[in-house]
Amino acid sequence: MIALQAGGEQAGGAPGSKTSKYRGVSWNKSNEAWQVELWDAEAKRNQYIGRYASEEDAARAYDYAALEMHGPECTERNFPGELISERPVSLGDERRERKTSRFIGVCWNEDKKTWTAQLWNLHTKIQKHIGTYASEENAARAYDWATVKMHGPECTERNFPGEVISEPPASLGDERRERKRSRFKGVYRNDDREAWHVQLWDPKAKRLQYIGIYASEEGAARAYDWAAVKMHGPSYTKLPERGHQRAACGTGTQALNLTFRFPVVPVGWLALRGQERRVLRLVVSLLLRGPTIK
Q1: Distance between CA 144 and CA 102 in Å, rounded?
Q2: Cα–Cα–Cα angle for 160, 117, 150, nearest 5°?
Q3: pLDDT, tens only, 222-243
Q4: Rounded to whole angstroms, how far apart are CA atoms 235 and 251?
Q5: Contact 267, 214 (CB under 8 A)
Q6: What is the pLDDT of residues 108-125, one digit of tens each?
């Protein structure tokens, strides 16, 4: 007969006392669950088995682990007359089960309530994040697209091997960026203020220069063009093809003076009173060293 060292005292106890009436079972107060440990004679330490909501499930998990470690000749069990063919599902197994998917490389994100696609990178030896998706199938197709891109079309470990995926499905991050993106260069949507804000890259300062916030997307685009011409000069040609905007920019001083005195009114301008506007006109005219805003 093989004698085992019990993980807990053989006294009947209630949750909170850290003892159980079953061998190898103890109450874990911090996790509020029954914890199972089995003494490993070779390693000379307790082997962690798992945590369980039920004390009886924890006791059966101990018996299953004891039989697996010492064989059927082990008699010091909690239920010696009961045949346990498989280990009870632990709390950790239940959590992992909720996060797994029927597709390769897809798991459930419990916090964000979304499906995450990940791919193992053999070169960097780390999991590569592909994206988060509302649909489990879209996450699976994103995995297939990424694995074919990484390993080539001969890769067979795919979720939809017979399906040709020319481009990945749009992730939730892509959709959020798409909503905030403008069709104009240097223009971005500010959802908090419900307005369009403008930024321009300054190569000398090597940072984005803030231009302003505008109620109109087209007005924000013209403000970008005005700032770009002011920064780089009237000969600046890297403005996007925008029809009337590019024509309005021109290349001469006259077109610049007529069109870009300040093409649109920022959102904050509308909240100013008469005296404040006059002061602001003076300040802006001194800063720009040009004609005042009409």
Answers
A1: 14
A2: 70
A3: 998 888 888 888 776 655 544 3
A4: 6
A5: yes
A6: 887 788 899 988 887 777
What are the C-alpha distances in Å from 190 to residues 194, 195, 206, 212, 261?
6, 5, 23, 11, 25
Strands (E), 17-94: 25-28, 33-40, 45-52
**Closest C-alpha among 175, 169, 99 to residue 141:** 169
Angle at 237 between CA 233 and CA 243, to 5 degrees: 115
- The torsion of the CA quartet 184, 187, 192, 195, rounded to 10 degrees, works out to -70
**66: Cβ contacts below 8 Å, ≥ 6 apart:** 4, 24, 38, 74, 76, 77
CA 246, 252, 257, 258 torsion-angle sign: negative
Rounded Cα gap, residues 19 and 59, in angstroms: 12
Residue whose token pair is 């850290």: 18
- Per the confidence metrics, is the pTM higher than 0.85? no
Question: Per mean pLDDT, which of 13-22, 146-155, 170-179 is the most reliable?
Answer: 146-155
Q: For the chain, how many residues are written?
A: 294
Q: Is the dihedral of CA 195, 201, 202, 206 positive or negative?
A: positive
